[in-house]
Amino acid sequence: DVFPVSAEEASTLQELLDQTHDNDEVRLRVIRAVRIEHSSLWAEYQTKAAKVAKKRGTCTFAGRGAPCTSQAFEEVPGLDEFTQDLDPGICEAYLWHGTSPQTALKIAKDGFQVNHHSVAGKRFGAGGYFAEDPVRSDKYAGAGEGIYERCYAMLLCRVILGKQYLIREFRAQDATEQARGAHDSTLAEPRGASWREFVAFEAGQVYPEYALVYERRRPDEVVHNELLHDLRVYRSEETVGSGAEQSETTEHDQLVAGLRLPPYWFHAHGQSAYFHDSYPAEAMEPVIQALLDSSWGGRYSEDRKRPDGVQMQLDGEDMSSSSSADTDCEEAEAMPTGVHVLKVIRIEDSGLWSQFVEFQETIRTRRQGQPLRSLAPVQTVEGLPAPERARLAKDVNEVYLWHGCSPSVVTQVALSGFPDKLRNFNQGSYGHGAYFVEDADHADEYSTDDAEGYYRGYYAMLLCRVTLGQPQVLAGPLGLDPRTSGSPVSSPSTAADRSVGPNRPFDSTVGPVPASYGEFREFVVQERSQIYPEYAIIYERKFRRSRTARFSFRELDGQRGH
Q1: Helix (H), strand (E) at residue 333
Q2: Which residue of 220, 419, 475, 500 has the lowest C-beta tally within 10 Å?
Q3: What are 387-390's contacts with CB under 8 Å, separation 24+?
Q4: Which residue has the higher pLDDT, 15 or 480?
Q5: What is the dihedral of CA 546, 552, 553, 554, to 10 degrees?
Q6: CA 342: distance to chain centroid?
């Protein structure tokens, strides 16, 4: 099984990465870390350790000595709190292994298949390849897909090196055959090279303890900053509004305007009119974290469930208040206090975007001459800085809204968007359609973690651009004030969707649902082209008490005589 590590442990693993690599030209930024707990792999590893100790007696590290990870473990504070002491008598060491995110999970489940040649295996013979320098292992890491796109993986493994077969050549494809029997592993330490590689001969010599998903960063790399693009556009529009003379537009500017691409997109600065891609949106991470914080009120609806699956009761309690924070009630303990953003991905899809802007033109034609109903301030719009609010087409009631889901659903939406037929997508208080919300705590109720993999224990949410057009504004239940402006047209009804769509009076539905105090608003649309899923957010929930359990291998199988 795999379990997410705490933020503190992830920070410590990042420091270990930084301490053990000697290449200033690249930095490996950890975005996800999980701990692997596999009882049968651990039992096999302990059995192998006992056999090596009995057969070899006391072993010593060959070549230049112990891997640099051993020294780093002494220098990085906090590592000893969640790792077990190593046995120097069998030359046990922590070493890195680069791979792809999906392959790393397969190794976590089934262990290493060291009888097959790896990518590097042609150089020093068959076996499992490891390095003390993560930059060396990074050379063999492969990129993932979906939400793992432009992400790589590295395993931090416990490896029993035992008696090592030292070679000084840059290539020795028969090393394993030469060494097997009299030795337990190969140490490749070529003359004049700064790097070393360690090759384990058997699967039982390796226990993959941590899996890290990371991004590559170079000091001179220019990170695409969409906030700067927003600011330039916002200031240029202010200049135009003041009557100042516009600067001459370039041919590329005209191309972007013709395609109507958001100018802050990466592809707005390329020449291709057709693309389907996603990018890490580092610059937006603090913006989205602030938006999540500002739209989190500590409330819940009847859809919020406790960890045991029992529905939480709507008792009118404010979970964000100091008085409720001091209570020991189950609801207070089960309700998260907020969320912490781990990764933000911007989705750039020319096909989905084209459908989105075409629908907005349809709304302008369909509602020509009709004043669109204005809504009370939408939190996911008002909480944004002015340059980001300026992205939205106010004349068609375009807004940013949350949609809670799982990491696997995020991957599906990033690849193909929302389903074509939204009427079969969801059935809620206001009929069929796709549901969105402005409150982060409400969206989190519908967010789930994946049952297995890196994102077990971590959750996902989409921040979507949604075209509401002419909204059908519905009243709240008896005794609760509606949060929408204007006169409500009807009471909440699961038949509300019958008034929405082409040749019907409305393009969307906006209505309240009861919360633990006050109300949430839900926004429902019927057509896929009304939605552009622009940002995918992977996050963890925060609770009053830490839910990350400390783990000790001693709990699995005792000590090995350490």
Answers
A1: helix 330-334
A2: 220
A3: 387/227, 387/230, 387/231, 387/233, 387/234, 388/227, 388/230, 388/287, 390/230, 390/233, 390/234, 390/237
A4: 15
A5: -140
A6: 6
Q: Which positions ≥6 away from 460 have C-beta within 8 Å?
A: 404, 405, 406, 407, 409, 410, 447, 536, 537, 538, 539
DSSP conformation letters of 391-435: TS-GGGTEEEEEEEE-HHHHHHHHHH-S-SBGGGT-EETTEESEE
Q: Return the axis-axis angle of helices 68-75 and 7-20, rounded to nearest 10°.
A: 130
Q: Give which of 531, 537, 536 is closest to 353, Cα–Cα.
A: 531
Cα angle: 133, vertex 137, 143; to 5 degrees? 140
**Which of 81-95, 312-326, 352-366, 509-523 shows the lowest per-residue confidence on average (mean pLDDT)?**
312-326
The pTM assigned to this predicted structure is 0.70
- In terms of DSSP H, where are the helices of 97-190? 101-110, 121-124, 134-138, 175-179
d(CA 404, CA 256): 31
| Residue that has been written with the tokens 């900053």 in this structure | 225
Give pLDDT tens digits for 490-514: 445 667 888 898 889 999 999 999 9
CA distance 547 to 128: 35
E-assigned strand segments in 100-218: 128-130, 152-160, 164-167, 185-188, 197-200, 206-217
The more confident residue out of 231 and 128 is 128
DSSP element (H, E) containing 366: helix 350-366
CA dist list (Å): 318 to 323, 331, 402, 517: 9, 11, 22, 7
- The contacts found for 357-366 with CB under 8 angstroms, 24 or more apart, are 357/260, 358/529, 359/467, 359/527, 359/529, 359/530, 360/393, 360/396, 360/398, 360/467, 363/396, 363/467, 363/469, 363/470, 363/507, 364/395, 364/396, 366/469, 366/502, 366/507
Q: Count CB-CB contacts under 10 A for residue 347.
A: 24
User: Helix, strand, or coil here: 305?
Assistant: strand
Residue 252, pLDDT > 80, answer no
d(CA 357, CA 365): 13
Q: Which amino acid is it at 206?
A: V
